[in-house]
Amino acid sequence: MSKNLTKRSEDYSKWYNELVVKADLAENSGVRGCMVIKPYGYAIWEKMQAELDRMFKETGHSNAYFPLFVPKSMFEAEEKNAEGFAKECAIVTHYRLKNDPDNKGKLMVDPNAKLEEELIVRPTSEAIIWSTYKNWIQSYRDLPLLINQWANVVRWEMRTRLFLRTAEFLWQEGHTAHATQAEAIEESVKMMNVYADFAENFMAIPVVKGVKTESERFAGAIETYCIEALMQDGKALQAGTSHFLGQNFAKAFDVKFANAEGKQEHVWGTSWGVSTRLMGALVMTHSDDNGLVLPPNLAPIQVVIVPIYKSEEQLEAISIEVNKLMVGLRKLGIAVKFDNRTTHKPGFKFNEYELKGVPVRIAVGPNDLENGTYEIARRDNLTKEVVSKDGIETYIQNLLETIQKSLYDRAFEYRNNHITEVNSFDEFKQLLDSKGGFFAAHWDGTAETEEKIKELTKATIRCIPLDRVEEAGTCMFSGKPSVGRVLFAKAY
Amino acid sequence: MSKNLTKRSEDYSKWYNELVVKADLAENSGVRGCMVIKPYGYAIWEKMQAELDRMFKETGHSNAYFPLFVPKSMFEAEEKNAEGFAKECAIVTHYRLKNDPDNKGKLMVDPNAKLEEELIVRPTSEAIIWSTYKNWIQSYRDLPLLINQWANVVRWEMRTRLFLRTAEFLWQEGHTAHATQAEAIEESVKMMNVYADFAENFMAIPVVKGVKTESERFAGAIETYCIEALMQDGKALQAGTSHFLGQNFAKAFDVKFANAEGKQEHVWGTSWGVSTRLMGALVMTHSDDNGLVLPPNLAPIQVVIVPIYKSEEQLEAISIEVNKLMVGLRKLGIAVKFDNRTTHKPGFKFNEYELKGVPVRIAVGPNDLENGTYEIARRDNLTKEVVSKDGIETYIQNLLETIQKSLYDRAFEYRNNHITEVNSFDEFKQLLDSKGGFFAAHWDGTAETEEKIKELTKATIRCIPLDRVEEAGTCMFSGKPSVGRVLFAKAY
Predict the structure, then answer these.
(1) Fewer beta carbons below 10 Å: N end or C end of chain B?
(2) Structural domains present in chain A
(3) Contact call for B39 and A62, based on CB within 8 A
């Protein structure tokens, strides 16, 4: 298996596009802007889903399912949200095809089957969900309402890239309703923290927690909390958002509750989501010029065993030993695969598992059988060592933990080396191109300045970090006063 | 909690509609024909998903994800399939909304954002998937290709009913490709058997396995294998189908492979699916006039514990005992809930859990504490007994198994009492109305007779049972010769 993978240093973007396809994660479909998530990619997504779902349930949320379609009148009820998504909506206008009289064997839209009201394919589900919550919430006893949905959504993007920006993508969207502002804010912050925990401890991706500026906020939100990650090319990637919606949707859909004193009040809302975009973040955080590098937590195959043999007898002897090893590894919950295909050479297999990012590769040949050893190769740092078979199961278990941690540490070090304080716009522009990463700079707090910096540099304010230190300064662009630094970066 | 549930004997259909809503399974949404699956209903669906997913993986299938939209030209490539679904397609024609100049704050479809080619919201995914398989299959080494997808699909139904017939529903669809006809047929039969196993052993719903007649076959299939269940009102419900597609889709999408001799051949296909319709089958197989009856395998709460107390001290003493019991039950993997709400009386709680079909209810009061006992109530047969707390955990575990089995036995007995052999059309018509159920009758094998019987009685041929005995006879309608009996019934 020849990889023919473009090097990251040559063309990072090309490297990414090639890797996603060659490693069997996803590919473009025959439908403009929509991707096919291939089995290997989907298996990784399933691992993300399982862990997130566990975390959501542990924090008291239940899953439910709401319709794919949103009638136009319902969609436009919360004006800011509608305005924010109007330009990227797929719209269903008809409900029937008929035979095309001018084209034998072809179909055409039946003009007699026009919908009375157009249906929007959900770009996000606040409208449909809040229109439902109206009937579910009467009293403070019905609150908080803590619901999550796993679903597909559609946003008509003109320039698409696998996982990062696709017309259809998969995600989860949490939608909660609360009796007080404080509780709703607490929930938004809690879910941002769940996302940060997941990104860092499960995906080995370090993130900065912060809030978005007004212009980067979710349409219809009062505050958008976010986690921001840094890719190897120095560009940032928004990895998850959690919105405090205030009473905006409650007012738009007239969702009220009777408080303990019997008085009617509008409820307070949040929504929060992560998507298949995380697959892109995963690839761009850890992988290298040889292919994918998967943190053990996310690897569909954590350990692959490749036999090295010259005769059938050797393969048989190796298989007996390997089968014992596999039983031992599986007992520890380790996902192991024995690649005993006789149609491919070991070198081909090594290349394939390197490309697919399998964290640990074990090679075993006649010499190993004789010596009671295995050759263990790590995908993350490409090192190899020969290890005795005594206690090998525990050794592998520990090694997987070591790899998980070391991937995080490596990404964390890279990220920390790429948060640069800058104090002038010239310095910012120069380092933005030469070094990349996050830039902590003073900003005057106006959307106007933010917009101008974006026009001139393509960099945006990724977030106002939650842990930022109050510090009087002057805006690097306008020279006006500022109370603290925000993080700028070019972003995906 | 007053149930006010219509009795089944009064109006079965009304009973069903009310129960689905009152038991918090689902409700109609503000979008025509689309339902909201509520958290309690969705939790049951999640249990079905988890078990089916395990069974699919155990039989060698992987999950993947394909686009929601199918371009019209792709959709119409397999003509029979296209024709079969053309009349119920939701069609996306535009990709943008804009402000309505005549209506401040309202949006309208932007006429300048018309798609060059209309997109069909998938009613089923053969077209999009086979257009993808073309690139995935080159050689016999790429076969078999065994893929499943969990997804939403849309079929524009005019008359909808929660779970049974909705414009949008959730399902899984398996799509496999094989080198030979025999292998593809084997796969179709295997998956029908997986569905039957799931229905019977997990959902406690007995089914008849069979094949569909030509007129009831999936559009584009050569053979449709199915499992048919019987509801309490004597109507049948198709619970799952598995299609042998022959080379129809391979030819429509030009999917060929090089066989071992290097010769190009079209591949052979199957597809198979079950949907949220199974939720309807679940309700209508087991539930009663008091509400849902859930088989323990599918119950989100398997055991509920209700404290009976007059003072806070009593509740405290009970709680101490109950917490120990819960630890013990959870160790055995039993989903248990302690309903210690002080806002509701025991009677209210009893009613609620009866309505929601919780298989086992435990009541515990001061007398029980004194005597070392619990009062155990079964939801399936509404019996109660007082049981010593010694060994209670194992007792409950066994009881859950007993309930699972006894629900199956009850449904099996009902179903077997409702397969009636009939030999004349008059007898058939009379018993169809007075008794209901399946009718094993001779049929001449023509679509014409089948259609006439349907017109006159609303009954259809549910299937030609796989285990039917060859038996020369004469068609109950036309008097023409027949080689064996088929099963007729009115159906959902």
Answers:
(1) N
(2) 12-68+125-286 (3.30.930.10), 296-405 (3.40.50.800), 419-489 (3.30.110.30)
(3) yes
